[in-house]
Design goal:
It contains eight helices and nine strands. The chain has 286 residues and is α/β, with parallel strands linked by helices. The chain has one domain: 3-Layer(aba) Sandwich (Rossmann fold), CATH 3.40.50. Strands 3-2-1-4-5-6-9 form a seven-stranded parallel sheet, with helices on both faces. The chain has a two-stranded antiparallel ribbon with strand order 7-8. Helix 5 packs parallel to helix 6. The radius of gyration is 18 Å and the shape is globular. GO terms for molecular function: oxidoreductase activity. Belongs to the NAD(P)-dependent epimerase/dehydratase family. Keywords: NAD, Oxidoreductase.
């Protein structure tokens, strides 16, 4: 059933029951879009024993214990195949920056296509196919000076560099999508959460950060603010707990953007504690 198979999508939407409440003790059917990267691999490792996972990724490397769909994140047919039957969706696919802003400039359209277009497409197909929850993996790079100086309470995203800007645009697209009625009758209700991650890393590298770009791989780095205060990276156990809490979120509005960091001093934002009842367990000095 592909995107051109709109009749199939409509038939599902018209006959499905309302999304089930995603309770804490309820194993879920979760689709991960772009699930073979660093963050996605952490989630698969944490969840596959308990939840029924479908992973959509361009990689053909086998991933044991999950249902796999090989394809691009912006391919409607691949997305439809991956989202079929999913109760919850995590969008992880991203066009990551390579080199300087000047070197990234020619790839602007490609970055927006993946980081914004595929997010909106996946969200709308999830609404058509009966999912109840959608988590968009965003970044605290939506703030231009995140990681340099503390972000004050109430600050609005201001990034203009390509990666941070594309994440801002995706958040705005999702927010605007829930402010009014869905553009088609086939699209049902959906709880949408953008998680603004800060330096997700591996268990081996924690509290340091490793880049997800293999061609730029170097020694793990412990980031610091301009005043030298260290910024702990996000441990994969804390990451998985935050995403799972977001998939089950009941507090807040239909759309929320939430900071997820192991360094509370880096941003004055308590939304993860308020809306997800989440706090990192792996913190420097503890």
């Amino acid at each position: 059933m592909g995107p051109g198979g709109g009749a199939g999508v409509r038939r599902w939407a018209q006959t499905r029951a309302p999304p089930a409440r995603l309770c804490e003790d309820h194993p879920m059917r979760i689709a991960l879009i772009g699930g073979k990267g660093g963050v996605g691999s952490s989630l698969v490792e944490a969840w596959r024993a308990e939840h029924e996972l479908t992973v959509l990724d361009r990689s053909t490397v086998p991933l044991p214990g999950v249902r796999e769909v090989v394809g691009e994140a912006d391919d409607p047919e691949a997305l439809t195949a991956a989202l079929e039957g999913a109760e919850a969706v995590v969008h992880l696919a991203a066009h990551l920056p390579h080199g300087s802003e000047a070197e990234q400039l020619p790839g602007t359209a490609a970055a927006i296509g993946v980081n914004v277009g595929s997010v909106l497409l996946a969200m709308r197909l999830a609404r058509c196919l009966g999912a109840g929850s959608f988590v968009h993996i965003s970044s605290l790079d939506v703030f231009a000076r995140y990681g340099e100086s503390p972000i004050p309470a109430g600050a609005l995203p201001d990034a203009t560099a390509l990666y941070g800007l594309s994440k801002r645009l995706a958040e705005q697209a999702l927010r605007l999508s829930v402010e009014g009625p869905a553009p088609t009758a086939e699209e049902g209700p959906l709880t949408i959460t953008s998680l603004r991650l800060a330096f997700p890393t591996t268990a081996e590298a924690w509290p340091r950060w490793v880049t997800p770009l293999r061609e730029e791989q170097a020694e793990p780095v412990l980031h610091t603010l301009e005043d030298g205060t260290p910024i702990s990276s996000l441990h994969p156990e804390d990451l998985a707990a935050a995403v799972l809490a977001a998939l089950r979120r009941e507090r807040g509005g239909a759309y929320e953007a939430i900071a997820v960091t192991a360094a509370a001093h880096s941003i004055a934002d308590d939304s993860a504690a308020r809306l997800l009842d989440w706090q990192p367990r792996n913190v420097l000095g503890e």
